[in-house]
Write a structure and sequence with these properties.
Blueprint: E1 13-16, H1 31-43, E2 48-50, E3 55-61, E4 67-73, H2 80-91, E5 98-104, E6 112-115, H3 124-133, E7 140-144, H4 156-163, H5 169-192, H6 194-201
Helix pairs in contact: 1-5, 2-3, 5-6
Length: 212
């Protein structure tokens, strides 16, 4: 019996969404960038600025020597799709081979959610990605950043302050564990397929008092 990974389009590009510049470093909205940095360290794939691709880009060997590309768009969040499309066109990649990692307020801190396709869910970076790829049929991994403490249905200003704010010390400890979960989930997706990784990681949760 072949492994489930043989039945799906292999991942060829992994993208983390965020905003460039020191102002946005380590903010909740940039957790996608941090996920790419974690994969870059794990697989020893250096990232360098690539003007043609409008982002920081690296190419190398991931799981089992499989060729993989990593991308952090520098177009700012709302135009992320421009960068992703540039890479997809250059390498002739189908949308199904592109995994996008990004933050999600609808998930609590400590949770990740992997899916094979879906809508933008109100996330501007995903809206741009879907528009430029002309498809919703690509895998995505959402990382929970929680809602503003003031209210689950906070005003726009509170939402902006939340996503562009930084994690507390205790939250940062949790996110360090979460980023390892992300690496593990991505590697399992490449070995045994996304459905298998979904079954193992979508129900995992790291609590504030669990993180070391």
């Amino acid at each position: 019996m072949p492994e489930s990974a043989d039945l799906q389009t292999p991942l060829q590009l992994i993208v983390g969404l965020g905003n460039p510049g020191a102002k946005y470093e380590q903010t909740r909205h940039n957790i996608g960038f941090e996920a790419i940095d974690a994969l870059s360290r794990t697989w020893q794939i250096p990232l360098a600025e690539h003007r043609k691709f409008h982002g920081y880009f690296g190419e190398g060997s991931g799981v089992r020597g499989q060729r993989i590309r990593l991308l952090k768009p520098t177009t700012y969040m709302n135009l992320s799709g421009q960068s992703i499309r540039a890479v997809a066109d250059w390498y002739k990649l189908p949308p199904e081979s592109i995994l996008v990692i990004y933050d999600d307020m609808d998930l609590p801190i400590g949770k990740v959610r992997l899916r094979e396709s879906g809508s933008a869910g109100g996330h501007n970076g995903m809206k741009s990605t879907i528009a430029h790829l002309n498809s919703q049929n690509f895998p995505r991994l959402r990382i929970g950043i929680g809602v503003p403490k003031s209210s689950p249905k906070a005003a726009d200003g509170a939402v902006v302050s939340h996503v562009l704010g930084r994690f507390s010390l205790s939250e940062s400890r949790v996110m360090a564990e979460v980023l390892q979960l992300v690496v593990d989930a991505v590697e399992l997706s490449m070995k045994q397929g996304i459905p298998k990784a979904m079954s193992l990681y979508n129900n995992r949760s790291i609590e504030l008092n669990q993180a070391s």
